[in-house]
Design brief:
Layout lengths: L11 E5 L4 H12 L3 E6 L2 H11 L7 E5 L5 H9 L7 E4 L15 H28 L3 E6 L12 H20 L5 E8 L6 H5 L4 H6 L9 H12 L9 E4 L15
Parallel strand pairs: 1-2, 1-4, 2-3, 4-5, 5-6, 6-7
The structure holds NADP nicotinamide-adenine-dinucleotide phosphate.
């Protein structure tokens, strides 16, 4: 990483959904860049492992705290334990459930996707805005998706949620104009994490098939984009980063070796 002019030294970052995948890789990458990191997710044992991986010589360490972004009381408790100034909030908790066509949409799965990807981001952002502003140089990075501007068969529950997240992100940037808080969306294509295992309710074979014959992004590739956006100088707002595997042109056009 070159030309970093806003390094993480002395800065505090909060990462949601840090117990696996992109959130875990982002927490480790931020710790390497000098941030002190507070990690949130529901699986505390996994979070603690990631917090340990954030440690190391010269690093400012990390704390793991239970967080369910769909539960207002959990968000309130999590935020109440933070210091009064926070520099970076990475709203990463989220994911997809199922691939039901609209004609067979399952209300509960749709509700959960909206609760995590959209409302979870709203709750965390609303609760942390005073602390972000108090830092004098705050930044909200929302982990969106190419599903935030494309659609695919069976994807409506997830694409609708990520389209919603995109609208929320762009609206927030307008509303914060003139205040010291930057707003960025990082929107990846296919990344091999636990995402597809969760989407297919633990069916690992079906999940593996999503990435078969192609080279997906890694969680670290996405973490790199988050850290790059966060470490630009305070006057530089990176609105959006879209990154995909070279093997993927759109959500449905994927080059696979047979
Ligand atoms: P992942 O490995 O399944 O990670 C999802 C993370 O979200 C986990 O740490 C999970 O932790 C957390 N989470 C889920 N529900 C939560 C809740 N209610 N409260 C707090 N944390 C919650 O998948 P990932 O790929 O890293 O996904 C991270 C983000 O990237 C998501 O927003 C996803 O939509 C987005 N994304 C992924 C891809 C992809 O291809 N993988 C592409 C584009 C965008 P717990 O279960 O411990 O709570």
């Amino acid at each position: 990483m070159q030309n970093r002019s806003n390094e993480g030294e002395g800065r505090l970052a909060v990462v949601t959904g840090a117990s696996s995948g992109i959130g875990a890789a982002t927490a480790v990458a931020l710790a390497r860049a000098g941030y002190r990191v507070v990690l949130g997710a529901r699986r505390l044992d996994r979070l603690e492992e990631v917090a340990r991986a954030c440690g190391g010589e010269g690093r400012r360490g990390a704390e793991a705290r239970a967080l369910d972004v769909t539960d207002p009381a959990s968000v309130e408790d999590f935020v109440a334990a933070l210091p009064p100034a926070v520099h970076l909030l990475v709203n990463n908790a989220g994911g997809a459930l199922g691939v039901d066509p609209v004609a067979e949409a399952d209300d509960e799965r749709w509700r959960t996707m909206f609760e995590t990807n959209v409302l979870g981001t709203v709750r965390m952002t609303r609760a942390l805005l005073p602390a972000l502003e108090a830092s004098g140089d705050g930044h909200v990075v929302n982990v969106g998706s190419t599903a935030g501007f494309e659609t695919y068969r069976g994807g409506a529950g997830y694409t609708a949620a990520k389209h919603g997240l995109r609208a929320l992100t762009d609206t927030l940037r307008l509303e914060l104009l003139g205040r010291p808080v930057r707003v960025t969306e990082v929107a990846p294509g296919l990344v091999e994490t636990e995402f597809s295992v969760v989407r297919f309710a633990g069916d690992r074979e079906r999940a593996a098939a999503v990435y078969r014959g192609m080279t997906p992004l890694t969680a670290e590739d996405v973490a790199d984009a988050v850290v790059w956006a966060a470490t630009r100088p305070p006057h530089v707002n990176v609105d959006r980063i879209v990154l995909r595997p070279r093997d993927q042109a759109t959500s449905t056009e994927i080059h696979r070796q047979s």
